[in-house]
């Protein structure tokens, strides 16, 4: 099994540019500066009899997961002289030493073979309670070893926040292979990409169903025919949901999974429609001479953000889920598009074009009062999609030349490239938790 | 030519779910420990059996159902699977690639001229109109041939909005050909946005090549 270090691009200097003076009252969920992270030390995983020593890899996977959780401050335990010694488990003297150094949580474990599986034991010691609070055993086939470390990370996040972690989530995206663009799904950290479609032509802009079983996407049935399909990931079974003349793009399931919204030009210009998946009723939500597209659900399911160029340039608008109460949200700049509503409802991420004419990521509050730009520099940033914990965004960017997939904290820090190799990666979308 | 025919084909997702048989085969197409896109699907490993009856498999669980819930101190072991299983991608067996190669050959033989657009614009230039006048002559001479007009965009801007922009470009081309006397029902429009580029460099000469109405002699 090959292991490639996660490519880290910490371009802190260029990011987090705050455009407006209202920045002081902008706080981004758990990334706010006053959030006190919990110091944690990962002592390591014993891997005694196993070939190619997966212990150190597991340690790194867990550390990366904990760092990305933004809940934990991962300490360099080696500097403190904290290492696992020969015996299984850690010694009480080690716990005391760690707690005296200010470490709140200690994690360690071992990985061993139990044919045909691998068994990962994880132990969690709470320095405040001064006791071991959990012992977890994960069992699985060798290819899912990273998933076991992800599970342990999510367990830690759950125990200390009461929220599900994101380490076991996935990202769907589009990647070019041999001249065609196909759907893929990869782990949230960019590992284990798996091809979902192999149509040999062009599939675009996937979105997850709320139960994570399906992706819905635009696919070209022929040179001139564009449909909206759903694919069931576990089986590869396909279903055509929308087949009308013209554009059929930007589909999105409602949060309860009962409706599909999308844009279609079957009656002339692009308009937004809602298809009830229960009754198969089709309702047109927008009526005007401009192009309307990219509907994005509020987590409540009561509102939609969308793009319209009815005012002359593409801008973000809001409307009720029945198409009423339309109002314009963005007024800065002459190109704002690709909205994505945050899981907690308090931000809408979108692509903004600033005075430097670059396409970057911005966040705006649904009342329009707060707006910040979170990426800067060269290249086209596109297709922002929120992590289920609302602390990260995944997006595509040509900042390094070719289009790659990146993860970034919602405050613009910790930019990290997720894809490596390949020709063109685009349209990432984060799975539900 | 605006058709009002509306064919919404719907296969209920609930119906789809019902198709998930027990014991469906799963396969992992890339080494799960790899980030690289270089290993092809031929490296696939069968993951069958791994997590088939996983008591903690996320797959199929309802939102919020047992995700990440602690299972208590000293609890039993958890079976870990891929989480979201992905079936091996199956080629759709479509003859599209071959048809498109034939169309491209027919288009090259016809010598049709493409038209090019300014940034963010779908307005035909004078040069573009002259090119379409020649194209219209060919279409009138070859009265049985059908035409597909593809709208293309440069890499700037969002993927989704460029699909709308490409559609406007393709329609502008069709509308002008109709003005010149070509029957509208001979011309189909389609947008590829920025997803079928003619060149890939991030500079103005490449951008210019990609802001295009591409005319294709169509079989359909």
Tell me about this structure.
- The complex is a heterodimer of chains A (433) and B (220).
- With 433 residues, chain A is mainly β.
- Helices cover 10% and strands 41% of the residues of chain A.
- Chain A has helices at residues 54-69, 92-100, 145-161; strands spanning 38-46, 72-74, 105-114, 117-126, 131-140, 170-177, 180-187, 194-195, 203-208, 214-222, 225-232, 238-242, 248-253, 259-264, 271-276, 282-284, 292-297, 303-308, 315-320, 327-328, 336-341, 348-353, 359-364, 371-373, 381-386, 392-397, 404-409, 416-417, 425-430.
- In chain A, strands 2-1-3-4-5 form a five-stranded mixed β-sheet, sandwiched between helices.
- By secondary structure, chain B is an alpha+beta fold.
- Chain B has a domain at 110-218: OmpA-like domain (60s Ribosomal Protein L30, Chain: A), CATH 3.30.1330.60.
- Chain B has five helices and seven strands.
- Chain B has a four-stranded mixed β-sheet. In chain B, strands 1-2 form a two-stranded antiparallel ribbon.
- In chain B, helix 4 links the parallel strand 5 and strand 6 (187-193).
- The longest helix of chain B is centred in the C-terminal third of the chain and has 21 residues, at 159-179.
- Classes of the chains: A mainly beta (433), B alpha+beta (220).
- At the A-B interface, strand 5, helix 3, strand 7, strand 8 and strand 10 of A face helix 1, strand 3, helix 2, helix 4 and strand 6 of B.
Question: Helices and strands in order, then pairings?
Answer:
The complex is a heterodimer of chains A (433) and B (220).
Chain A (H helix, E strand, L loop, with lengths): L37 E9 L7 H16 L2 E3 L17 H9 L4 E10 L2 E10 L4 E10 L4 H17 L8 E8 L2 E8 L6 E2 L7 E6 L5 E9 L2 E8 L5 E5 L5 E6 L5 E6 L6 E6 L5 E3 L7 E6 L5 E6 L6 E6 L6 E2 L7 E6 L6 E6 L5 E6 L6 E3 L7 E6 L5 E6 L6 E6 L6 E2 L7 E6 L3
Parallel strand pairs in A: 1-2, 1-3
Antiparallel strand pairs in A: 3-4, 4-5, 6-7, 6-29, 7-8, 9-10, 10-11, 11-12, 13-14, 14-15, 15-16, 17-18, 18-19, 19-20, 21-22, 22-23, 23-24, 25-26, 26-27, 27-28
Chain B lengths: L12 H6 L8 E2 L16 E2 L30 E3 L16 H15 L4 E2 L9 H16 L4 E7 L6 H21 L7 E7 L10 H7 L1 E7 L2
């Amino acid at each position: 099994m090959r292991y490639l270090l996660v490519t880290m691009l910490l371009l802190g200097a260029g990011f987090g540019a705050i455009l407006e003076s209202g920045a002081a009252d902008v706080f981004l969920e758990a990334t706010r500066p006053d959030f006190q992270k919990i110091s944690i030390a990962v002592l390591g995983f014993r891997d005694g009899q196993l070939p190619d020593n997966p212990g150190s890899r597991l340690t790194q996977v867990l550390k990366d997961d904990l760092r990305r959780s933004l809940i934990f401050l991962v300490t360099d335990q080696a500097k403190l002289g904290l290492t696992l010694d020969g015996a299984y488990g850690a010694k009480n003297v080690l716990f005391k030493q760690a707690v005296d150094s200010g470490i709140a949580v200690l994690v360690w474990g071992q990985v061993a073979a139990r044919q045909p599986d691998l068994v990962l034991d994880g132990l969690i010691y709470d320095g405040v309670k001064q006791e071991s609070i959990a012992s977890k055993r994960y069992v699985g086939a060798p290819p899912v070893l990273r998933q076991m470390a992800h599970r342990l990370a999510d367990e830690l996040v759950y125990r200390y926040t009461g929220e599900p972690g994101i380490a076991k989530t996935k990202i769907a995206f589009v990647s070019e292979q041999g001249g065609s663009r196909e759907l893929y799904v990869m782990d949230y950290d960019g590992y284990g990409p798996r091809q979902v479609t192999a149509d040999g032509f062009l599939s675009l802009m996937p979105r997850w169903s709320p139960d994570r079983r399906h992706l819905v996407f635009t696919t070209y049935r022929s040179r001139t025919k564009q449909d909206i399909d759903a694919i069931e990931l576990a089986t590869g079974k396909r279903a055509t949901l929308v087949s009308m003349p013209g554009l059929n793009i930007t589909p999105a399931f409602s949060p309860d999974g009962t409706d599909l919204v999308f844009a279609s030009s079957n009656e002339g210009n692009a308009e937004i429609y809602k298809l009830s998946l229960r009754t198969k009723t089709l309702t047109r939500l927008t009526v005007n001479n401009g192009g309307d597209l990219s509907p994005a659900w509020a987590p409540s399911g009561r509102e939609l953000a969308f793009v319209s160029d009815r005012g002359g340039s593409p801008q973000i608008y809001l409307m009720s889920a029945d198409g009423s109460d339309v109002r314009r949200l963005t007024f800065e700049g002459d190109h704002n598009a690709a909205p994505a509503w945050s899981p907690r409802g308090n931000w809408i991420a979108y692509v903004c074009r600033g005075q430097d004419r670059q396409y970057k990521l911005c966040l705006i509050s649904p009342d329009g009062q707060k707006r910040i730009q979170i990426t800067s520099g060269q290249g086209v940033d596109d297709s922002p999609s929120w992590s289920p914990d609302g602390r990260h965004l995944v997006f595509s960017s040509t900042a390094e030349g070719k289009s790659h997939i990146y993860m970034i904290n919602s405050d613009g820090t910790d930019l990290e490239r997720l894809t490596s190799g390949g020709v063109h990666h685009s349209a990432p979308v984060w799975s539900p938790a | 030519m605006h058709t009002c025919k509306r064919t919404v084909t719907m296969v209920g997702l609930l119906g789809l779910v019902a198709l998930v048989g027990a014991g469906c085969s799963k396969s992992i197409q890339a080494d799960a420990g790899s980030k690289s896109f270089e290993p092809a699907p031929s490296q696939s490993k069968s993951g069958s059996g791994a997590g088939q009856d996983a008591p903690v498999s996320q797959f199929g669980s309802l939102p919020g159902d047992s995700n990440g819930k602690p299972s208590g101190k000293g609890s039993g072991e958890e079976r870990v699977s891929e989480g979201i299983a992905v079936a091996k991608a199956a080629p759709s067996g479509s003859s599209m690639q071959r048809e498109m190669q034939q169309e491209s050959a027919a288009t090259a033989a016809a010598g049709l001229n493409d038209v090019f657009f300014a940034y963010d614009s779908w307005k035909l230039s004078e040069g573009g109109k002259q090119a379409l006048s020649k194209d219209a002559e060919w279409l009138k001479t070859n009265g049985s041939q059908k035409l597909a007009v593809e709208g293309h965009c440069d890499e700037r801007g969002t993927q989704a909005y460029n699909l709308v922009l490409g559609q406007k470009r393709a329609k502008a081309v069709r509308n002008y050909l109709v003005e010149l006397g070509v029957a509208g029902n001979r011309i189909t429009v389609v947008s590829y946005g920025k997803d079928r580029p003619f060149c890939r460099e991030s500079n103005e000469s490449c951008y210019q090549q990609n802001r295009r109405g591409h005319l294709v002699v169509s079989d359909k």
